[in-house]
Specification:
Blueprint lengths: L12 H15 L12 H7 L1 H5 L2 E5 L6 E6 L4 E5 H5 L4 H24 L5 E5 L19 H13 L2 H9 L4 H8 L3 H10 L4
Parallel strand pairs: 1-3
Antiparallel strand pairs: 2-3, 2-4
Helix pairs in contact: 1-6, 5-6, 8-9
Bound molecules: zinc ion.
The site of zinc ion has 7 residues, from helix 5, strand 4 and helix 6.
Length: about 200
Amino acid sequence: MSNPNFSFKPMSGKKIDQLATAYISFYQPEILKKPAPFDVHRFVDTKLEDLTGVVPVYSRELPPEIYGLTDSSENRLEIQEALAEDPFQEKFFRSTLAHESGHCIIHVPQLRKINRGQVFRQGKEEGGVQLYRKDDIPLYCNPEWQAFRFAGALLVPEGPLRMMLADGASNFEIANTFNIHQPFLRSRMKALKLI
Ligand SMILES: [Zn+2]
């Protein structure tokens, strides 16, 4: 803990969206033209370590209330194995992976630079941003807000979302197309001021 006053770099929602879109354009550009799910599972399993130095591990040892955890000093991303293997939780699994990818991509390099370790946990009750509500961290510097925004941008890129809305698709169809839960879609649409 070398610098107690450390705060993460501020990032606008737009900037985070651009970052996520850059990854999509590189790994799965076709989905920017024709809406489809981003294969975040494959992205984490085959690209994340090369990109960030963080090794993804599917763990049986995480307490059941913790779904995912990024430990910057250990360079480990742990995901609850039961979540990864439960076909009924695929959508939630995908959003957990996307959220943790946000921590690995945005926050781990900043922590590494100042030689500081931090553990990000994603748990059952976590709305994420609420965890920090009592702190004075501005939203744009809040690592949980940033990771949620990144997850939204990675799984529901703005262009394809707008395409579907223009075609009159229902929220049900849109959520299915991107393989996410409807509440996840709603918060993404709120973030983009579409609702
Ligand atoms: Zn988090």
